Amino acid sequence: MLVYGLKRLLHVIPVAFGVSVVCFMLIHIAPGDPLAAILPSDASAELQAQMRSFYGLDRPLVVQYGLWIWRALHGDLGVSIATGRSVSGEIAAASLNSIILALAATLIGFTLGSLLGFLAGIFRGGIIDRIASGLSMLGVSVPHYWLGMVLVIVFSVHLGWLPAMGGGPGGSDGRAVGWDYIRYLVLPAITMSVIPMGIIARTIRSLVADILSQDFTQALAAKGLMTRQILRHVIRNAAPTAISVMGLQLGYLLGGSILIETVFSWPGTGFLLNGAIFTRDLPVLQGTILVLAMFFVLVNLIVDVVQGTIDPRIQRS
Amino acid sequence: MAAIITQETTLPRASIARSPGYWSGVARRLSRDPVALIALGLIVLLVAMAILAPYLAPYDPTKASMIRRLKPVGTPGYLLGTDELGRDMLSRLIYGARLSLIMGVVPVPVAFIIGSAIGIIAGYLGGITNTLIMRTVDVFYAFPSVLLAVALSGTLGSGLGNALVSLTVVFIPQIARVAESVTTQVRRLDYVDAARASGAKGHTIILVHVLGNVLGPIFVFATSLISVSMILASGLSFLGLGVRPPDAEWGLMLNTLRTAIYVNPLVAALPGVMIFLTSICFNLFSDGLRSAMDVKS
Fold it and tell me: CA A114 to CA B174: how far, in whole Å?
């Protein structure tokens, strides 16, 4: 277990390094001078040179990268050009909101998706199977930002049941547990849950069908076990893959939340990123992408290790 | 003598006809799949709509009018209503097919060519070259697709060209990974060893023996990416990172109509219906193709 975990970690380090290089290079592939966003257009050449050396932009790229990653590793991602606040502070505040949303969406998607996939896998070719495959086809094909708009039209504009946007009654500040806050979470979480639901339903359907066709389940039936007892074996065999798919989906939702957070003005990292793109706030843009991508790498690592722990067959392969 | 000749000519034709090949089998299986056929038919209709837009659209899609803004669906003369600037929705949806299809479809074949080349080379050469190429691919694969697309087009700036580049970069690593794993499997098969033993050069083996056997699965995977690409491309426009106004594109229309959901919700939702329809057709057709080509997912 420990050896396997260390092996995975060794594999992840070069990937994490590469991801950080890509994030660092983002600012340098951006058209125009990175300073253009900070300085007024009539800034003197002297001031420009001064700012350039202040931000270290006059040093070689390798040195710039070294300084940047050193600071990033110490939690310093620079200062937002738009607000003047520290980038890591802004990301930390937004991350909590994003994690709440992604967790809620994964929970809904995983519960419904695995139920649907499980039933479809047992009753293959039946009506439940048809409905499940139809629903998962719709789930993976729907533009979720549009689905979010449609839900807002139905539940906020027409019925007036739920708020159309925002993170809570007091704006983005102060979280509490209570219906006043959960109300705001319902529509974005349901919208977001559609993505993992379809994928999880598909995965579990084929997993269950695969396990049921294996010899050992037939042996269990021949031994005289009841259907309920056989299904317990099926669940135990399907669990490692199902959990790893869920973990990966959580990572995808966190990294790819920008569209849904924009639709619902949900004050998370995606919303922050969207704002940074349009104000050309490069430190925030770069910092958010770095944090989100690193988080995705980390989730992948955790999923691998957890899967390897529950299912020893994976460690050996 | 004459009798023999007549006997020969009356032989049944079928015995000398070529046995049906793999692709005719695929076509036959596909022609028996009604869902895939309907999906393909709708895709053809959408493409025809995009090409024939100037003949089909009743109005100029960019002609605005302040006095007929946000007319509801079913207004006489404006069948699907008008948008927030008084432009005819039907015309804009028809014209929108052009940019939406270009943005959604083009990145996939480009990424297919580049990604296959990278993956096949890595898979065929193996060793240190494989490690170097695939670790680089892994880095880009480590980003969630939406995040990478937004990061690239966000830094490059909005515009059709930048959006196409970003989406292509998103799909290259995904295709390269599939190409690499398929090629690695094929490379270990006996007939490749046989070809090498008979003195065939590296490029001959890749072109003749490997390519024909790996392109099928990669192709099927690539077709399944088109629907993802449609949703992502329109998503970029929805964020304001794709096509710029006043061009008609479904994702951008969805974005500019967002403020109209309180006034005219049905009109505001229409562009999304088009994205949904296109994406589901590509998905269904890709599924049909996958089972017709008998490729395991």
Answer: 26
Reported as a single tens digit per residue, the pLDDT across B133-151 is 998 998 998 888 999 999 8
At how many degrees (to 10) do helices B265-293 and B22-31 cross? 140
Task: Give yes or no for a contact between B260 and B268, defined as CB atoms under 8 angstroms apart.
Answer: yes
- Asked whether residue B170 is assigned to any structural domain, the reply reads yes
Coil vs helix vs strand at B88 = strand
Question: Does B75 fall in a domain?
Answer: no
Check whether B5 has a pLDDT greater than 60.
no
Residue B16 domain-assigned? Answer: no
Contact (CB, 8 A) for A218 and A133: no
* CATH classification of the domain holding B191: 1.10.3720.10
Q: Give me A16's structure tokens.
A: 């994490």
A194 close to A263: Cβ distance less than 8 angstroms: no
Q: Is B203 on the interface with A (CB under 8 A)?
A: no
Name the residue facing B156 among A22, A31, A293 (closest C-beta). Answer: A31
Report the C-alpha dihedral over residues A117, A122, A124, A128, rounded to 10 degrees: -60
Q: What is the pLDDT of residues A136-181, one digit of tens each?
A: 888 888 998 999 989 888 888 778 787 777 776 665 555 666 666 7
d(CA A60, CA B255): 41
Task: Show residues of chain A in contact with B262, CB under 8 Å.
Answer: 157
Name which of A139, A193, A195, A142 is nearest B273 in CA terms.
A142
- Structural domain of B231: 30-56+80-292
Q: Around B130, how many Cα atoms within 13 Å sit in the side-chain half-sphere? A: 13
Q: Between A14, A26, A146, which is nearest B151 by CB?
A: A26
Other Cβ atoms within 10 Å of B34 Cβ, number = 9
Domain tally, chain B = 1
Q: What is the pLDDT of residues A91-118, one digit of tens each?
A: 888 888 899 899 999 999 999 998 888 8
Question: Chain A within 8 Å of B139 (Cβ-Cβ)?
Answer: yes
**Distance separating the N- and C-terminal Cα atoms of chain B:** 59
Cα separation, A68 vs A86, in Å, equals: 15
**How would DSSP label each residue in A222-252?**
HTT--HHHHHHHHHHHHHHHHHHHHHHHHHH
- Asked if the C-beta of B219 comes within 8 angstroms of chain A's C-beta atoms, the answer is no
Of B131, B116, B121, the C-alpha closest to B206 is B121
ipTM of the complex: 0.85
| B73 in a structural domain | no
